[in-house]
Amino acid sequence: MLFQNIKILDEKLNCKDPMYVGIKGDKIDYIGTEAPKEDYGESYDGRGKLLMSGFFNSHAHTPMTLMRGYGENMSLQDWLTLRIFPFEDKLNGEAVYYGMLLGIAESLRFGIVSTTDMYYFGDEMARAILESGVKNNLGRGVVNFTDEPPDLLPGMQETKHLFETYHNEGGGRLKVDISLHGEYTSNPKTAEYLAGYARANGANMHVHVSETQFETEECKKRHGMTPVQYLNARGIFDARTTAAHCVWLEEDDFDILAQKGVTVASCPVSNLKLASGVCNVPLLLKKGVNVAIGTDSVASNNSLNIIEEMKFFAVANKGKQFDPTLITPAEALTAATAAGAKGQGRDDTGKLAVGYKADLIVLDLMQPNMVPIHNMVNNIVYAASGSDILLTMVDGRVLYRNGEYLTIDMEKTLYGVEKAIERILGELK
């Protein structure tokens, strides 16, 4: 495909216009002010539009689309025990498959090209990922409240199966991460086993960290350490790790995360909605931590609108710390693109540059909310809407365009979701 006469946001987030961008295979092959001599196939008229990197959702539980709006205005503990856990207990593979497809469709609509996921029924999730053409770092959250050897845990058995079956499938689109659910849902032996497995196999780690004050204080009572200190001592951070939330960090935690090269996936909307707090992103950035953005689940967000998430990411600390200079629009946009790609171990994407993977989106600049444009990055972070996205491309393949999902049968997906919810609610009664 050849994008012509289009504004672009280059790898340094500079806006250039008018430009030509040629896509060959799964990569960006040409960027220039003149029309290329090579034939790139279909020409895309870019007048009034912006081409830029797609977004990377660095922490999600995508199949939980099935629980959107199911539990609201509740404390976290009541939300989990009275609504979410009973609903999840009724899930099966078919429900997760259709919930995953629904979440992928929503992600594509909002320009998300790749997601770091943690859930279960991994075979069905992998099937939806590979069929739809998106990228995903898939993890099966491992928990252990028993004395059972870690290698015999159902979650660990599924993790090994997923890694051996699907890691780097789809031309590398699907990566399998090793996912310890969290300190408070496991024991030291389990954490150490997963850390060792990740190191031995060169896999990424994905773990919930210090999401709530209660979690952090209880960890200190159990182990005499914060969750960050505990997980570091167990070897979790010796692999490339995404640490989700990181709201209740203490002084030494910031240095540990920086020294270990951990990516923090900040989830501002979910954290605010569940009254968990606000991640201290400015201090993380000051310490040199790679900070990315996650939506968390649709059950606690309640959407996958990552442009909305960027705006909350940019403004939450301004309000909390009474400083309007904290977190620039460029830092917020980097968190949703290049930083997210880096955290997933995808060093060949997250930027619009020659040789990078063509994981790209097109935004409509002719909507009232996008006019005028004094600064493109400012507009994207503070003024844009997820509905402004016209096209989402992954590995050079257009997956969403002008309201049409080119790899997902939406009628079948919506029917599958409807039947799954009908069954589950019937069983819960």
Average pLDDT for all residues: 97
Second-tier CATH architecture of the largest domain: Alpha-Beta Barrel
What's the helical proportion of residues? 25-40%
Largest sheet: 9 strands, mixed
Q: What Rg, in angstroms, do the CA atoms define? A: 21 Å
Instruction: Label the overall shape.
Output: globular
N-to-C CA distance: 52 Å
Tally of alpha and pi helices: 15
Domain Amidohydrolase-related: 51-398
InterPro entries: Amidohydro-rel, Metal-dep_hydrolase_composite, Metal_Hydrolase, MTA/SAH_deaminase
Protein name: Amidohydrolase
Organism: Sinanaerobacter chloroacetimidivorans
What does this structure look like?
- Keywords: Hydrolase.
- This is Amidohydrolase.
- It comes from Sinanaerobacter chloroacetimidivorans.
- The chain has 429 residues and is of the alpha/beta class.
- It folds into 2 domains: 2-53 and 356-405, Urease, subunit C, domain 1 (Roll); 55-343, TIM Barrel (Alpha-Beta Barrel), CATH 3.20.20.140.
- The chain contains 15 helices and 17 strands.
- Helix 2 runs parallel beside helix 3, helix 11 crosses helix 12 (329-336) and helix 12 crosses helix 14.
- The mean pLDDT is 97.
Properties at a glance:
alpha/beta, eight-stranded parallel beta sheet, 23% strand, 429 residues, 15 helices, 2 domains, TIM Barrel, Urease, subunit C, domain 1, 17 strands, hydrolase activity, acting on carbon-nitrogen (but not peptide) bonds, nine-stranded mixed beta sheet
Short synopsis of the structure:
The chain is α/β, with parallel strands linked by helices.
